[in-house]
Design goal:
Elements lengths: L1 H13 L8 H18 L8 H18 L1 H19 L8 H13 L7 H17 L1 H19 L1
Length: 152
């Protein structure tokens, strides 16, 4: 029994450097490509509203963490609905309120075109990174998972 466990551990350790150096930017690129392939139509990856929104949130979180051009692009996308919601004249809507609104817009309407849950999902991911609180927990989990994948 102990020999089997040691052999299994050796296999996992030997498989560790399979991915090579990925980095947060590489993971952002991969998740962005996954969104594009799903949006354009792929026989291997079919997008529905929930997948589109989830992958878009992960993409935005990774892009914000990567910074540079990645961060600029998603911040630009995220500012549009955020400014509309906060500038609606409905009082002081904080980033937590914007995060809730964007999450609802991403996952609850019956979208016919997948570009909308992707758009609102990217916006939500940007706001989650800025809002902190409970929204920061999800950001932390995505970044922790990304660092674990990057270490493989």
């Amino acid at each position: 029994m102990t020999i089997t466990l040691a052999a299994a551990t050796d296999v996992v350790l030997a498989a560790g450097p399979v991915f090579g150096s990925i980095g947060i930017s590489g993971l952002a690129l991969a998740s962005g490509m996954l969104l594009m392939m799903g949006l354009r139509g792929s026989d291997r990856f079919k997008l529905n509203r929930d997948k589109a929104g989830g992958v878009a949130i992960v993409f935005a979180t990774l892009a914000m963490a990567a910074g540079e051009t990645w961060g600029s692009v998603v911040k630009g996308i995220g500012e549009v609905p955020t400014s509309i919601i906060q500038g609606s004249g409905l009082g002081n809507i904080g980033l937590g309120g914007v995060a809730i609104c964007l999450t609802l817009l991403t996952f609850f309407p019956k979208w016919k075109k997948m570009i909308w849950p992707i758009f609102y999902g990217i916006s939500a991911g940007v706001v989650y990174a800025k809002a902190g609180g409970i929204w920061g927990v999800g950001v932390g989990l995505v970044l922790k998972g990304a660092s674990m994948v990057g270490a493989l």
